[in-house]
Amino acid sequence: MVLQSVKNCLWLPCVLRTPKACFWSTAGGGLIIQSVSNDVYQNLAVEDWIHDHMDLEKQQVLFLWRNSPAVVIGRHQNPWQECNLRLLRQKNIKLARRRSGGGTVYHDLGNINLTFFTTRKKYERMENLKLVVKALKALRPQLDVHVTDRYDILLDRQYKISGTAAKLGRTSAYHHCTLLCNADKFVLSSVLKSPFKGLKSNATPSVPALVKNLLEDDPSLTSEMLLDAIAKEYAMQHQIDHHITLINPADEILLPGISDKTKELQTWEWVYGKTPKFSISTGLNMVYKDSVLDVKVNMDVKHGRIEDCNIDLPEQWLPPGLYSELVKGLTGSKFCPNEITALVTTLLRVCPQDDELHSRWSLLCENMIRLM
Amino acid sequence: VCIHRVRSCSSIRFIKSKYVCVFDKSAFKFSHQQRLFRTSAVSCGQIVQFKLSDIGEGITEVTVKEWYVKEGDSVSQFDSICEVQSDKASVTITSRYDGIIRKLHYSIDDTAFVGKPLVDIEIDASKGVASEEDVVETPPMSHEEHTHQEIKGHKTLATPAVRRLAMENNIKLSEVVGTGKDNRILKEDILNYLAKQTGAILPPSPKAEIVPPQQRAEAVPAAPKDKARKIPVPVSRPIAFAGKDKTEPVTGFQKAMVKTMSAALKIPHFGYSDEIDLTQLVQLREELKPVAEMRGVKLSFMPFFIKAASLGLLQYPILNASLDENCQNVTYKASHNIGVAMDTEQGLIVPNVKNVQVCSVFDIAVELNRLQSLGSAGQLGTSDLTGGTFTLSNIGTIGGTYAKPVILPPEVAIGAFGKIQVLPRFNSKGEVVKAQIMNVSWSADHRIIDGATMARFSNLWKSYLENPTSMLLDLK
């Protein structure tokens, strides 16, 4: 009644011959599917796959998914601006860039994601959000939830429990939103705060908001209950069976080409390289031998790579030949701590073997790498 | 849907919009649009102003976020032209025509308006005609295969570029499964089909390539030396591949490598190789592996190789030295910071284990585990990567027997190990026995190291490893 997993082998022959409309066909104009995976890249790849390959003319699709801890930035955002990358790496939280627009969100298992797939013509976000609110109210009538005209869902008139984003293609479109059930608010607020100062960019900025978990208002709720309630409402509105089909995003036979999509979402070129051009103008405070040096650094970063770079060091602090080697090496490199560490440590091999020089070089490089 | 092409090269003609060549029915929507007609003798195409279509939800303006094309690029129908954003929605605008982009009406971050021109596309009528002629000339394929394209009642969508590729390789489009939008056949589908036909394995697509670091951090093997090593499948290219050369600038880490290796060239290298019988060491490691695992550490052969090297360096400290730029002074380094070559996504990086002279084999194993996991995660710090005095490279985990390693300045020596092979050897009684044999190849700086020193060091190192119990006598 609640969740049923159906491994329907009858679908497979259908898939191989005409990998289009006829598979997953149910009676009625809708289909509800849920991912068995908690991997943010696999789940985003499923969205891409459905968007690219499914014919949504005859049936619309609702996709339910949850992720293990991850930060998801919008298509045109700047990860350095949106989150604390060092904290993410320390805590092993994944970073993903989705294909839809909008702002940055934090996902963990206490957050549910809903994606509404329709044809381009039937794209209608308000209706979807109203469906979610209706489902919530049907489950717990006393919940004070409503949809704003910014496509957020607010709890108790002030706390954001859901954010929205959308992707429109030539023939199909999807609208997805989050829903905070029981997410870790402490981690959320600390990773979504960027320590970066002096960053100038035209990337889409996120609008920070006060958040609250639905479970704070009603501890008897669980993520499963919420998923089920929303599926029930969707089924009612589309006049289909209240039946959730589980899918495995690693299934290459059911979803041919999905592993390539998953891989692409994990590449550096996609996650970081798609950042719109930005520039950094900041100062490094370096403590060197009882004095503090204020070193100004200016860099332009395009496609995630350093296009132009200038470090304002005191005269002769580094031999000029070495300084120009550093700048030459940085130019064209990825704005990425791993690559720059490899670069600067390799350059150290070909400069004069002088302890003083080495310690200055290490100090400067470590401070710079910390920016990334 | 029949395709009408208009030859208008030499004359200026007023063409009724409904005859203009487009593939889908939506073309008729454009019959009311204004068209600009080019009258130059050079190009035969006509310029169409492609307008930004309705986004829905009453949206009238959007921000242009990314261009996928630039002026002069040729596009096919359904190719992506740009990405625009409006109020949390990201929209991919695709081309309705085949042609050449002649003008982009907006720059990045500009506001674009629905209903106003987005790009100007020159529809090249003559090109379209040429492709039909190609179909006639290719004998094995019937003309019908390519122009009618009916598969079991479904129409096959494929861009002219893809069709040309199929034709060049004598492929029937009806036999190719399309994985693009609306079942379109993409270039990848043709290539996959080709690969199946020739039995070749296609090279991985350049942009989506990730090699998982675990497979490539080869310098510290866990168990691959024994049996379950992956044999790389040779990549052979399919026949008749319409590929193009690709030139990329040398940037970042690669640039640094160029510099280092160029400096290494200035060092006069000499090589010295030998064969080591690791039979006893293999047995010892098998015994010690579970002990180490109980302590939470993976024990490979490298900790033994590293410790034996350090014991050797105590006797031959000149191999742990550094020559200054002018070759005036030799500095004998006190610490044995032994570098371990690691293959990562960036390329070759060499973190080092510090002060091996005061570490036990177990300490070295712990440190190697730490460096390996940091290396795979791409989180090695500058201190891990600097200060090395001597380097070892376990290329044998990937394969090979003999090598000619290049010394990493400012060091003066380096060793490379091949794979361990089970080979027949004579024992002291003259009997043929199974022996675990590995080859080592050393390179040293001939300005301050001579062959005899290298040979003696190698012999000492070899004796420690062939009789591991002898290490007990000299362990500090």
From TrEMBL, chain A:
Which cellular component terms (GO) are annotated to the entry? mitochondrion
Q: Which GO terms describe its molecular function?
A: lipoyltransferase activity
Which InterPro entries does the UniProt entry name for this protein?
aa-tRNA-synth_II/BPL/LPL (IPR045864), BPL_LPL_catalytic (IPR004143), LipoylTrfase_LipoateP_Ligase (IPR004562)
Q: Name one Pfam family in it.
A: LplA-B_cat
Q: Where in the cell is it found?
A: Mitochondrion
Q: What are the EC numbers?
A: 2.3.1.200
Q: Which residues form the BPL/LPL catalytic domain?
A: 56-242
Q: Which residues form a coiled coil?
A: none
Q: What biological-process terms (Gene Ontology) are attached?
A: protein lipoylation
| Keyword Hydrolase belongs to the record | no
Chief location of this protein?
mitochondrion
Q: In which pathway does it act?
A: Protein modification; protein lipoylation via exogenous pathway; protein N(6)-(lipoyl)lysine from lipoate: step 2/2
Q: Which domain of life is it from?
A: Eukaryota
Q: What class of enzyme is it?
A: transferase
Q: Which UniProt keywords apply?
A: Acyltransferase, Mitochondrion, Transferase, Transit peptide
Primary role: Lipoyl amidotransferase that catalyzes the transfer of lipoyl moieties from lipoyl-protein H of the glycine cleavage system (lipoyl-GCSH) to E2 subunits of the pyruvate dehydrogenase complex (PDCE2). Unable to catalyze the transfer of octanoyl from octanoyl-GCSH to PDCE2. In vitro, it is also able to catalyze the transfer of the lipoyl group from lipoyl-AMP to the specific lysine residue of lipoyl domains of lipoate-dependent enzymes but this reaction may not be physiologically relevant.
Give the family from UniProt: Belongs to the LplA family.
Q: What is this protein called?
A: Lipoyl amidotransferase LIPT1, mitochondrial
Naturally occurring in which organism (per UniProt):
Melospiza melodia (Song sparrow)
Q: Its gene?
A: Lipt1
Automatic annotation (TrEMBL), chain B:
Q: Which UniProt keywords apply?
A: Acetylation, Acyltransferase, Lipoyl, Mitochondrion, Phosphoprotein, Transferase, Transit peptide
Domain of life, per UniProt, equals: Eukaryota
| Region feature (Disordered) | 130-154
Q: Any one cellular component term from GO for this entry? A: mitochondrial matrix
Q: What is its EC number?
A: 2.3.1.-
Q: Which GO terms describe its molecular function?
A: acetyltransferase activity; dihydrolipoamide branched chain acyltransferase activity; lipoic acid binding
Basic and acidic residues composition bias: which ranges? 142-153
Which reactions is this enzyme annotated as catalysing?
N(6)-[(R)-dihydrolipoyl]-L-lysyl-[protein] + 2-methylpropanoyl-CoA = N(6)-[(R)-S(8)-2-methylpropanoyldihydrolipoyl]-L-lysyl-[protein] + CoA
Fetch the PROSITE patterns from UniProt: BIOTINYL_LIPOYL, LIPOYL, PSBD
Q: Where in the cell is it found?
A: Mitochondrion matrix
Cofactor field: (R)-lipoate
Q: What class of enzyme is it?
A: transferase
- What InterPro entries does the database record attribute to this sequence? 2-oxoA_DH_lipoyl-BS, 2-oxoacid_DH_actylTfrase, 2-oxoacid_DH_E2_comp, Biotin_lipoyl, CAT-like_dom_sf, E3-bd_dom_sf, PSBD, Single_hybrid_motif
Q: Which residues form the Lipoyl-binding domain?
A: 47-122
| Ranges of residues in domain Peripheral subunit-binding (PSBD) | 157-194
Residue ranges of the TM segments: none
Q: Which family does it belong to?
A: Belongs to the 2-oxoacid dehydrogenase family.
Please give the PANTHER family that the UniProt record associates with this protein: DIHYDROLIPOAMIDE ACETYLTRANSFERASE COMPONENT OF PYRUVATE DEHYDROGENASE COMPLEX (PTHR43178), LIPOAMIDE ACYLTRANSFERASE COMPONENT OF BRANCHED-CHAIN ALPHA-KETO ACID DEHYDROGENASE COMPLEX, MITOCHONDRIAL (PTHR43178:SF5)
Q: Relate the protein's function as given in its record.
A: The branched-chain alpha-keto dehydrogenase complex catalyzes the overall conversion of alpha-keto acids to acyl-CoA and CO(2). It contains multiple copies of three enzymatic components: branched-chain alpha-keto acid decarboxylase (E1), lipoamide acyltransferase (E2) and lipoamide dehydrogenase (E3). Within this complex, the catalytic function of this enzyme is to accept, and to transfer to coenzyme A, acyl groups that are generated by the branched-chain alpha-keto acid decarboxylase component.
Name the UniProt record assigns to this protein? Dihydrolipoamide acetyltransferase component of pyruvate dehydrogenase complex
Q: Which gene encodes it?
A: Dbt
